[in-house]
Amino acid sequence: MPGTSAPKSIESPEVIAVTIGIGDIFRYLAELAAATCRGRTGLATYILGAGDMLSAGCNKPHELKFALFELFPRAQYILYFDADTIFLEDWNVPVEQAAESFFCVRDFADDPSVIAESLRIGINPKSYFNSGLFLLSRSAHRDMLTLAGRLSREFPSPFHDQTYLNAARSELQIATIFLGPEYNAMRLERRQDLPRATVGHFRWIDSKPIDMLGSYYHFWLRRGIGRLSEIQQCVDELLGMPYTINEVGLPSRQIAFHKSCKISVSAADSEKYWEISLQSDGPVLWISNDRSTTHMLRRTGEGIWKGTVLADSGRTVSIDPLMAAASEVPGHSNSKME
């Protein structure tokens, strides 16, 4: 199994890393991610853009994954990673073993979408992999990419490329080695224990303001080093009492923040998850739903947060402590981070 000792610099064009960055936000994210990949793996790292879509005859950015070996004809090994990932630890990528095995990371086997897609293609959800990071060899896996591209034209999937890659791998019976979850730590920002991960995978980072992405990304790159007490104070406040959320144009609603990074009680559909990052001017509270980041708020006083609705930046929102005993809130927890 690959270790995390310091990587050697690899200059060979035969061994490369690749991501996709199309559109202003994803291009910026791809540049951030590529810099961490290059620094942590030593691999020459490339970003595919709109011109590559044209040359490969692709209609959507995700389809570029099916054409990786055509776009890089000298490459024998390719480490692919999504633009919304971050390389946090040094990694000696196991290219020698990739000649015989496909390296990837499992997706969430209990997620309803993963279960549905697994049933669609007739595989066990526990063997369904997340296509945000994988390692390919030309000799063993080029046919898998070609087949996945063909399958993408035969039936629809909400997962863009992922289900087609899983179906192709299954049909061709590709030998697979599943890396541990630390190699694609998904939903990194919902992990309040600031985990040690080799590669983290963000959720909906592209729905955050583009002018804040750099500082947000570098907060996770450093994982809050030197400011953990400031994070802990904010987390303790959020977990320590019930709140009301007051949004212009809507009635006030009672909400409660949980250690699982979920929001409950009478929260709206746009208020399902929470996370905290630190900017140079202080902490930021982010709220999201199942599709995007919906609210951005800053701490203006003890237990008080004010900000905007991201989809409508002119609409203000505030979160204020509800003057009631925390024990009265159903399912409330005042646990600290562990």
> Roughly what percent helix?
25-40%
| Terminal-residue CA separation | 28 Å
CATH topology of the largest domain: Spore Coat Polysaccharide Biosynthesis Protein SpsA, Chain A
Shape: elongated
- If strands are numbered along the chain, what order do they take across the biggest sheet? 12-11-10-17-16-15-14-13
* Uncertain ranges: 1-10, 324-338
Q: How many distinct folded domains? A: 2
Q: Kindly provide the radius of gyration, computed on alpha-carbon positions and rounded to a whole number of angstroms.
A: 21 Å
Q: What structural class do the secondary elements suggest?
A: alpha+beta
Provide the succession of SSEs.
EHEHHEEHEHEHHEEEHHEEEEEEEE
**Nearest-integer average pLDDT:** 87
Per CATH, the architecture of the largest domain is: Alpha-Beta Complex
Within CATH, the superfamily of the largest domain carries the name: Spore Coat Polysaccharide Biosynthesis Protein SpsA, Chain A
Secondary structure layout plus pairing:
Layout: E1 15-20, H1 24-41, E2 44-48, H2 50-56, H3 68-71, E3 77-81, E4 85-87, H4 95-98, E5 102-106, H5 112-121, E6 129-137, H6 138-151, H7 162-171, E7 176-179, E8 185-186, E9 199-201, H8 213-222, H9 228-240, E10 243-247, E11 253-257, E12 263-265, E13 273-279, E14 282-288, E15 293-301, E16 304-309, E17 312-321
Parallel strand pairs: 1-2, 1-3, 5-7, 8-9
Antiparallel strand pairs: 3-6, 4-9, 5-6, 10-11, 10-17, 11-12, 13-14, 14-15, 15-16, 16-17
Task: Please provide a brief summary of the model.
With 338 residues, the protein is α+β, with helices and mostly antiparallel strands.
